[in-house]
């Protein structure tokens, strides 16, 4: 690529306010598969100096007419992806007519026709694929939208309220929508299709009645009640916890099969990936039910955090995403188990976010340089962004945090603002100084903390010294403001009150310096310290803790999250010791005994026990090594699992046999299934008549969680029942693509010499489709993320499989391709043979003709 052809980066520091406002946008769509006409009338006001031209963004548009105040003009230029018009009056109406081809748009961005429905996706910069526009989030406009289509598209939907509908003289029909709230173009939506509809209503706290409508493909109505319930719960929760009420008279959700992400929060008209809406007990797992509730909540919560107050520019994405993830996590925690939700969130941080932060795509939660914005919808912006909001919540407390939220809306409702504006509202409302805290927004990388403890029995004092280090890949980072929560346990497992100078003090230490010490008095015995309780900051902590101390924490910490965390540390320590040892290494008797107690006593939340029994994921373990010892980690984990399965075989059988769920999706039944599933995971490794019976029982259940638990257990154990059960599942579910995704994901986990050939042959399976992101992610995504043994084959065939896919996907759907590339980003962390093979695939992409901006940005970063 020559330099002039290289995609250009945008920088946060170059932000300039717009020269024009778009007071109103009037759009008319005449929908046709390959030649949809879009007529756009923009009411413009100049706000910049009168020399400045109007610059509109547009990609793949055929411009057919351009007029100002009803007079056709020719004095304009189209340069690259911009339409430039000079000498516009201070106020005018600009009419633009363009044509687009939704049917051939496979990028699933802009307006596209897939699965029999027209649908849009405009965030971040997809609106420019629909018409010429100031496609930036700080240009807010009211919208009127008219949709004209053939009558087989029975539902014609857009944002806001429907104000007209009828027939056209040529036998087609139309619908007209008006959105009274000003919004940026990325929140625009249009859907045209033939759907079944679930209608409901919600009465808001104020007494206002709101219509709710859920649109799904014909025949799917029985799978909609859970999503509708989730929506109503979200509306109620946001009123109760955040004092926020819905603002329009109708809230619509449409489920479509072809969608790049989970869902999109378009004003009044959310568009969802069907896998994030549709569920019944036979087809969806408990995890699916949880995900649906959380995503429905997430999109709903965006109505205030994202839509009413939006981002000034895309560098501020975490303003809405970090905050909204925090809100959806709190929603799930208030409605379900706080500990399990925290465990899930921390797993995401430790497996995906830490690795992103340590690799070539490392960026602060507010990035400073971007080539393709779609590449920045990352675990860093979303999940680390949510951790940053959570830290503010910890520093301020719930009452002050809510005061901060109220001030934020009072100041900025209807505006496009920055992350700094949010922090200012939090700080002004609470009186807490957050100046140093703001560094979390501008510094990339995971901070490392080292904790050193000292107990002085003569003075009964306990001193904790915390030192913070810049991440290895970000050596210039300055010390951060870190809320560091602790608990001290005595020998009997009771919590010791924290005292200093005779007074009780907070358990959240304000760490601000590079090195700081904290002394606590009246500590009458050497305590066992629970550090970074509840993962109070997204950091990597090192501390010298013995196995006995970790077992003590696992038993007695007041935070269930920290109990789980201690258990993870026990496993991690054991794996590391085993990897570094030449001899056969075993989990200690004490660890096995602790697991035995958990299974036998079954005390407390069974879902938590299930988590406590799981070994850490490959990625969590890999993070512990500079160069990832792939074969050793796989070997040691397999060895430990066999050890657990053998030593606790009787207990696991008894535990599985003693558990019964009532088939519902309440928390107790979900927990029972979770514990049964982990029992089966171990039991499948020790085939016996008894365990085969359990496996067959679960596999024939009418509950998908049980079925998938059995299938996953047999696949991972290469159990003799594996082939039969998989082929039965295929014949049973071929009619349901979403269920077949589970089957593809199971197939992707196969090991054995022919695994690669077998997986490739599934591209020919009637349910597979390269243009559908769900299918591609189910098969190839599961393979490259989770089938470590085959993906990292030393002969490079696993890498080649992913490389081939990316070459293919680059032309079909660059956004999906770029997401699928991620496993290659950490190529430098593998041994010489593997890293050279991965690099070859990256170079192959780098030399590809027509490489998309999405892939270019990541490939270039990876190789440099
Ligand atoms: N805001 C959308 C994500 C858009 C992704 C664009 N590539 C969904 C969400 O975070 O709620
Ligand atoms: Zn979001």
TrEMBL record:
Which GO molecular function terms does the record list?
alanyl aminopeptidase activity
What cofactors does the UniProt entry give for this protein? Zn(2+)
- Keywords noted in UniProt: Aminopeptidase, Hydrolase, Metal-binding, Metalloprotease, Protease, Zinc
| Database matches in InterPro entries | Aminopeptidase_N-like_N, Aminopeptidase_N-like_N_sf, PepN_Ig-like_sf, Peptidase_M1, Peptidase_M1_dom, Peptidase_M1_pepN, Peptidase_M1_pepN_C, Peptidase_M1_pepN_C_sf
What broad class of enzyme is this?
Answer: hydrolase
Could you confirm whether the keyword Hydrolase appears in this record?
Answer: yes
Catalytic activity reads: Release of an N-terminal amino acid, Xaa-|-Yaa- from a peptide, amide or arylamide. Xaa is preferably Ala, but may be most amino acids including Pro (slow action). When a terminal hydrophobic residue is followed by a prolyl residue, the two may be released as an intact Xaa-Pro dipeptide
Residue ranges annotated for the Aminopeptidase N-like N-terminal domain, each copy included: 24-187
Question: Pfam families this protein is in?
Answer: DUF3458 (PF11940), DUF3458_C (PF17432), Peptidase_M1 (PF01433), Peptidase_M1_N (PF17900)
Domain named Peptidase M1 alanyl aminopeptidase Ig-like fold: residues: 445-543
Give the highest taxon in the source lineage.
Bacteria
Q: Which residues form the Peptidase M1 alanyl aminopeptidase C-terminal domain?
A: 549-864
Record domain Peptidase M1 membrane alanine aminopeptidase: where: 227-440
Q: State the EC number(s).
A: 3.4.11.2
Q: Which family does it belong to?
A: Belongs to the peptidase M1 family.
Protein name as catalogued:
Aminopeptidase N
Source organism of the structure = Pseudoalteromonas marina
């Amino acid at each position: 690529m020559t330099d002039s052809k290289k995609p250009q980066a945008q920088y946060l520091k170059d932000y300039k306010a717009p020269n024009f406002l778009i007071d109103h946008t009037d759009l008319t769509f005449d929908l046709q598969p390959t030649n949809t006409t879009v007529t756009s009338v923009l009411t413009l006001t100049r706000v910049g100096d009168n020399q400045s031209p109007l610059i509109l963004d547009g990609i793949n548009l055929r411009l057919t007419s351009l007029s100002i105040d009803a007079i056709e003009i020719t004095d304009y230029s189209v340069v690259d992806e911009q339409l430039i018009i000079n000498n516009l009056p201070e106020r005018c109406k600009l009419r633009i007519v363009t044509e687009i081809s939704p049917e051939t748009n496979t990028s699933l961005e802009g307006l596209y026709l897939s699965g029999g429905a027209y649908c849009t996706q405009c965030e971040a910069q997809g609106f420019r694929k629909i018409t010429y526009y100031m496609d930036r989030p700080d240009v807010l406009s009211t919208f009127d939208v008219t949709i004209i289509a053939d009558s087989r598209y029975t539902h014609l939907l857009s944002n806001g309220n429907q104000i007209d509908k009828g027939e056209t003289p040529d036998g087609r029909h139309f619908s007209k929508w008006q959105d009274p709230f000003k919004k940026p173009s990325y929140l625009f939506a249009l859907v045209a299709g033939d759907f079944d509809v679930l209608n409901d209503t919600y009465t808001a706290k104020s007494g206002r009645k709101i219509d709710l409508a859920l649109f799904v493909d014909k025949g799917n109505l029985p799978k909609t009640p859970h999503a509708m319930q989730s929506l109503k719960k979200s509306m109620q929760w946001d009123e109760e916890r955040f004092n926020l009420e819905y603002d329009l008279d109708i809230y619509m959700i449409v489920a479509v099969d072809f969608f790049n992400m989970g869902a999109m929060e378009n004003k009044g008209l959310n568009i969802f990936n069907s896998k994030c809406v549709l569920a019944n007990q036979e087809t969806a797992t408990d995890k699916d039910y949880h995900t649906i509730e959380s995503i429905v909540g997430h999109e709903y919560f965006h109505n205030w955090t994202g839509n009413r107050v939006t981002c000034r520019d895309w560098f501020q994405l975490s303003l809405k995403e970090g905050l909204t993830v925090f809100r959806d996590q709190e929603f799930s925690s208030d409605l379900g188990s706080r500990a399990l939700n925290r465990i899930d969130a921390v797993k995401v941080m430790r497996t995906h976010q830490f690795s992103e932060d340590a690799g070539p795509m490392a960026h602060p939660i507010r990035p400073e340089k971007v080539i393709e914005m779609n590449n920045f919808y990352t675990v860093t912006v979303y999940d680390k962004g949510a951790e940053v909001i959570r830290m503010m919540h910890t520093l301020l407390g719930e009452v002050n945090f809510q005061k901060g939220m109220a001030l934020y809306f009072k100041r900025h409702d209807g505006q496009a603002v920055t992350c700094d504006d949010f922090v200012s509202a939090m700080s002004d409302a609470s009186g807490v100084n957050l100046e140093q805290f703001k560094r979390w927004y501008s510094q990339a990388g995971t901070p490392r903390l080292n904790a050193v403890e000292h107990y002085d029995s003569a003075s009964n004092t306990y001193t904790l010294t915390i030192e913070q280090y810049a991440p290895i890949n970000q050596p210039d980072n300055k010390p951060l403001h870190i809320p560091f929560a602790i608990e001290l346990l005595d020998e009997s497992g009771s919590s010791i009150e924290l005292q200093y100078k005779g007074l009780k003090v907070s358990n959240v230490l304000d760490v601000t310096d590079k090195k700081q010490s904290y002394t606590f008095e009246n500590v009458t015995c050497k305590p066992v310290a629970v550090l970074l309780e509840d993962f109070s900051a997204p950091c990597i902590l090192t501390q010298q803790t013995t196995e006995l101390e970790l077992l003590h924490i696992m038993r007695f910490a007041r935070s269930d999250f920290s109990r789980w965390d201690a258990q993870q540390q026990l496993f991690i320590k054991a794996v590391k010791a085993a990897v570094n040892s030449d001899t056969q290494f075993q989990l200690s008797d004490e660890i096995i005994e602790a697991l035995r107690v958990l299974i036998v006593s079954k005390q407390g939340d069974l879902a938590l026990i299930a988590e406590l029994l799981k070994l850490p994921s490959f990625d969590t373990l890999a993070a512990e090594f500079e160069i990832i010892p792939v074969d050793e980690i796989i070997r040691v984990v397999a060895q430990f699992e066999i050890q657990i399965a053998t030593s606790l075989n009787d207990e696991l059988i008894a535990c599985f046999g003693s558990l019964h769920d009532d088939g519902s999706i309440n928390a107790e039944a979900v927990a029972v299934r979770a514990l049964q599933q982990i029992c089966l995971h171990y039991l499948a490794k020790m085939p016996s008549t008894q365990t085969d019976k359990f496996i067959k029982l679960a596999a024939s259940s009418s509950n998908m969680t049980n079925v998938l638990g059995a299938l996953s257990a047999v696949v991972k154990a290469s159990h003799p029942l594996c082939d039969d059960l998989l082929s039965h599942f295929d014949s049973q579910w071929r009619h349901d693509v979403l269920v077949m995704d589970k089957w593809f994901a199971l197939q992707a986990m196969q090991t054995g010499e022919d695994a690669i050939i077998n997986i490739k042959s599934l591209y020919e399976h009637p349910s597979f489709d390269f243009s559908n992101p769900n299918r591609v992610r189910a098969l190839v995504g599961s393979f490259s993320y989770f089938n470590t043994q085959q993906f990292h084959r030393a002969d490079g065939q696993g890498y080649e499989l992913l490389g081939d896919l990316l070459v293919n996907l680059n032309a079909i759907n660059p956004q999906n391709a770029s997401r699928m590339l991620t496993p290659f980003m950490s190529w430098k962390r593998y041994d010489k043979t593997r890293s050279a093979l991965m690099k070859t695939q990256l170079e192959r992409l780098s030399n590809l003709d027509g490489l998309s901006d999405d892939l270019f940005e990541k490939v270039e970063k990876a190789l440099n």
